[in-house]
Amino acid sequence: MLMQLPKVTRRKEDLKNSEFPLKHYSYSSMRKFSSDPFTFRLNYVQGQYVDSLTKAPFVLGNAFHKAMQVYNGGDDEIIVCNESEALMFGLEAGVKYIDSQFEGMVDWTKKLPNKQKLQELLVFMFNSYTSEMPYSQNEIIEVEAKSLEKIDVEWNGKQLSLPIPLKGYMDKVVRDDKGRIVIIDYKTTQKYSDMDKIDAGKLLQASVYYFLAFVKYGEAPYSSEFHEVKSSKNSIIDPETGKYPPQTKVYEFVYEEMPVMFELFFRFYQDMTDAIMGKMVWVPNIADPYNSDESQTALIGYIHRLDDPEELSKLMKELQVENVSDLLKKKLESKRNDGLFLKTIEKNLRKEFTKIDYSKLSMHEKIQRKMIEFGIIINYVDTVKGHNVTQYRYEPTVGVRMTTLLKHEKDFEQVLGVANVRVLAPIPNTPYVGVEVPNQERTFPESMPANNGYELAIGCDIYGKEVKFDITEAPHMLVAGSTGSGKSVFMDTLIEQLKSCTYTDIHLIDPKMVEFAHHIGDKNVKNHMTDPESIDRHLAQLVKVMNKRYTTLLNAGVKSIKEHNGSMRHIFVFIDEYGDLIVSKHEKVETIETGMYERGPKAGTAKTKTVVTNISKQIEKNILVLSQKGRACGIHLIIATQRPSTDIISGSIKNNFPTKAVFRTGKAIDSQVVIDQAGAEKLTGKGDMLFSTHEGVERLQAYKL
Question: Other C-beta atoms within 10 Å of 703: how many?
Answer without folding.
Answer: 24
